[in-house]
Amino acid sequence: MNATLSGFAAIGMWAMLALFTAASGSVPPFQLLAMTFLVGGGVGLAGWVIKPPRRGSLALPPVVWLVGIGGLFGYHFFYYTALRNAPVAEAGLIAYLWPLLIVLFSSLLPGERLRWYHLIGALAGFAGAALLITGRSSMAGTGNWLGYASAMACALIWSGYSVISRLFKTAPTDAVTVYCLATALLSALCHLAFETTVWPANLLEWLAVLALGLMPVGLAFYLWDHAVKHGPIQLIGSAAYAAPVLSTMVLVATGFAEPGWRLVAAAILVTAGAIVASGRFLPSQTAGVPE
Hints:
Elements: H1 3-14, H2 17-23, H3 29-50, H4 62-85, H5 88-95, H6 98-105, H7 116-136, H8 145-165, H9 175-194, H10 203-230, H11 233-239, H12 242-253, H13 261-278, H14 284-287
C-alpha cells in the first residue's frame, strides 16, 4: 500500500479507539491492553501464514526490538499512568503533543528538512486537537506532577518511536507482530500486579475487544510502521491531529457524545493544518511529492 495512505488509514483506525473502548465495558486498562495486543499480534501471525517472513529477516539488532517494544508498551503504560494521576483533559492534551513532536524531530533525520509550512500545519492541528480535548472535561482541579510527567513521556516515546523507526527502514513490518505480542505480555504482567480481572459482560463487549485488537490496537500499528518508514513523515505527523476530531465525530454519530461548535472549529483547524503541512498550495518544486 502507498505509504501516505497507510498513515492515513492508521489514523482513521485510531479514530475508532474511543468508541470500541467505550463499548468494551469495565475491563481494566492493562487487561484490555493485554487482550487487544494479543489479538493484534495474532493479526501479524495470520499474515505470516499467508506470507512467511524471509529467512533471517527478523534477526534484527537489539536496539530495533528495544525501540519497537518500548514504543508500543511504553506509550500505553505512561498514558494510563497519566490518566490516573492528572485531570483527563490536561493529561490528554500533553500526551497529544506527539504529532507536533514528530514534525519537529523529523528535521533531525538524514535527508529531511523542517519547512515553515510543516510547523504551521502541525501547530494548526494541535490547536484543533487542544480545542476539542479541553472541551471534553474541565481543566480545573489539581493535577499530580507524576501524571503530567507521564503524559509528557507518552508524547516523547511515541514521537521518538515514530521518528527513530525511519532509521530502521530495512527492518520488516513483520517485526511489529513481535512488538504486539511482547506488549501483550508486559501488559498482562502489569494487570496481574495492579488490577483485578474483569471480563467483558456480554457478546457486544467481547466484539468491541476483538474490534480493538483487529484495527486500532492491531492493523493500525502495522500500517503506521510502513508509513513512518517510507512516507512523508511531516505530513503524516500533522495529519495525525485528525484522530481526535474523527474520533469525536464517530462518538457523536453513535450517540456517545453531543455535537457542538468545538467539533466544527477543530475539524476546520485540523483540515487546514493538514493542507498547509502537505505544501500542496506551493509550487511543486517546493512542496515535494509524497511517496
